Hints:
amino-acid biosynthesis; Rossmann fold; alpha/beta
Amino acid sequence: MVASNFSPVKLSPDAASVKKTGAFALMDSLHRHGVEHIFGYPGGAILPIYDELYRFEARGELKHILVRHEQGASHAADGYARATGKVGVCFGTSGPGATNLVTGIATAHMDSIPMVIITGQVPRAAIGSDAFQETDIFGITLPIVKHSYVARHARDIAWIIAEAFHIASTGRPGPVLVDIPKDVGLEECDYVPVNPGDVKLASYRPTVKGNPRQINAAIELMSTAKKPLLYVGGGAILANAHEEVKTLAHRFQIPVTTTLMGLGAFDEHDPLSVSMLGMHGTAYANFAVTGCDLLIAVGARFDDRVTGKLDEFASRAKVIHIDIDPAEVGKNRRPDVPIVGDVRQVLTQILDRLDELNLPEETITQDWLAEIERWKRDYPLEVPQPEGALSPQEVIVEVGRQAPNAYYTTDVGQHQMWAAQFLQTGPRRWISSAGLGTMGYGLPAAMGAKVALPDEEVICISGDASFQMNLQELATLAQYNIKAKIVIINNGWQGMVRQWQETFYGERYSSSNMSTGMPNFELLAQAFGVKGMVVRSRDELQGAIAHMLNHDGPVLMDVQVKSNENCYPMVAPGKCNAEMLGLPKEPPNFG
């Protein structure tokens, strides 16, 4: 749903208009929609907006966080949104400022994160003339936004912002771009405020309640299944459906696996949890999905990193697929019972219907649960303790032990997968780029989460290669005293690239060794005004983590680990989920 021009302005019948600029209309509208923090970087085309922002900041109505690169702004707004469930907001100017936001917009789009992105644009008369710092950011971002606007008139801005927030946060969330030409920001208009709730988009009314016939069909499959499995994705987090997932799992004694995006939707300490499935999921989760006879997909999209060889994924199972986005239902795997709707509401409908039918509490055989328990015993996740070196796994386990309730962000690579395997977090406390796999995401995302939740512990787990993608945001941490903690799992490599080159490319390590030219991260942090630390041995680890957590300010801790540790289990490309590398023994035979 994309529009290059806005419809005629709609006036509230009881609203009084006053002469204001487009920039004022924007800032006032953001304030009215509950925005407290904006992440951004100024430039020529967006200066009228920053000039008005100056006044709003002076009155204490908004707070702007000046990043050091626009990509940092988009990732920070993304982390802010994931941690809170609110719409994240970021600013960038025209041309390179706008294009620097693109990776962050694509990251949010892939993971369904609600954001409103404001870009400055050259004046209306100059659009299309290849003016200085002109890019068609509207066209560039068409495939990676939920909706787009170009504000052609100042009078339209209040309604544009109201619609942008509604669209970004309703149904399947996503990023919305608003491009504002410089002269529109300066233009005066009869400004009429538009408040949240004023917008009623007839063309955008997502289905939120499941079809009753499909609800009954789902219950019928659930009541006869002997080996059911709940497969829970990021949609359950976005819909705040964790309590409903828990209730359904316990009602039927259904084991639960989650995707990378779904981590935190179900308590991994619960005996019914089999943790994450997929390429680097647990062996027992992958065995469970291979052996189940009913797969209940809740807010998940059957991503290739989850399914492995698609035609062998849950090939013995009937499938119930619950999702707010009808485009996802049946896209990769045809379900036996498709249910389009908000997953929280649909699960509530299922639970209410179960109460009406008064079905038995437990219908599955205990053999299924016993089989899963055997797999957990026989194929545990391992935490190696190599002689003379730290393993990445033991570092992450110790961080998680000392900060069990922290909000965790990650970058992308081996450290991300180890963090997913060993950190057991709650809803919204796992913040990671899943669909796009964006290196450089972790630090600015932690910055956004910490700005949103200053009283919570926020820890970024990064790798030495990923961290260098956006390390300039250390300056932002220092300027605003954003007390996030960064732990670099430093193995001197692009770790996941090295593992693939070792496993699939004959140990030809082409351009993956990062040790030459590696900065001294401790001194680098100090140069930015951030506390730097380095850990080289197991004896130092526990005390160093405690010191990091107790420090009243941002910290960068460089933990030097074994250089050639591989992340297992691993489902090789094109293989069935039950065929994993790195298992301690032969996998079970599923026939």
